[in-house]
Amino acid sequence: MEIWSIIIDDEPHAIAELSDIVARVPGISVSGEFDNVSEALAFVKEIGHIDVIFCDIQMPKLNGLAAAELLKAYCDHLIYVTAYRDYAFEAFNVHASGYLLKPVSTEAVVNTMLKVVQKRSRHSEQQSEELVFIKGGHKNSFSKLVLREVYAIEAMANYVTIRSTDGEHVTYMSLKSVAEQLRKYENFYRISKSVMVNMDHVKTVDGHMIRLTNDQVYTVGETHRSAFHEFVRKRTLRP
């Protein structure tokens, strides 16, 4: 899959050099070149999204570091290109995907883009793993379920109700069976005989009460309390 990028730099020769290098790297293309952040932002806002932004740091009006959050809202990977080593720590703090020193070499660009491709591949695999189907009410009917969007799963007699961001799904299987099949997903945690929650959606824990991000409240079952509170304790930041 082609990776689309833009370059932001107030020095025309720097844009030309980087553009020439990127053109020689298979699988990546430059769809725009800009000498300031404002024009680049206007472009990415118009198209909605860009895979990679190569951005200089020291520029007039708005520098690359100050614009980090604005740029990252419209791209998957922000890569800084600068003549200065001094900004590496700041780049790390804004979660930049790369830090290239000028004069930029083809090898440096290739190595950085390999890391980008690997991240994209892992993200794609993770998204694929999070996608499952559940049986519907008819023999050959199935509903797609994105696991990260699930709030909780509740046992109801011989079926379960799955509460998700897109509503409720009912499927005829036991909570025990669901728990066994979701065992590899550590964020799903059984808090009682009849309820399993997605810990990614837990907003607060107050004693034995759990409030989810959809404001649904559940009680941790007595036989699950010790294990649950140990789970929370291990993940609690301490002074």
UniProtKB/TrEMBL annotation:
Domain HTH LytTR-type: 147-206
Domain Response regulatory: 4-117
One Pfam family here: LytTR
Single GO MF descriptor: DNA binding
InterPro entries xrefs: CheY-like_superfamily (IPR011006), LytR-like (IPR046947), LytTR_DNA-bd_dom (IPR007492), Sig_transdc_resp-reg_receiver (IPR001789)
Keyword tags: Phosphoprotein
Sequence positions bearing 4-aspartylphosphate: D56
TM segment ranges: none
Name recorded for this polypeptide: Response regulator transcription factor
Organism: Pedobacter chitinilyticus
Top-level taxonomy: Bacteria, Pseudomonadati, Bacteroidota, Sphingobacteriia, Sphingobacteriales
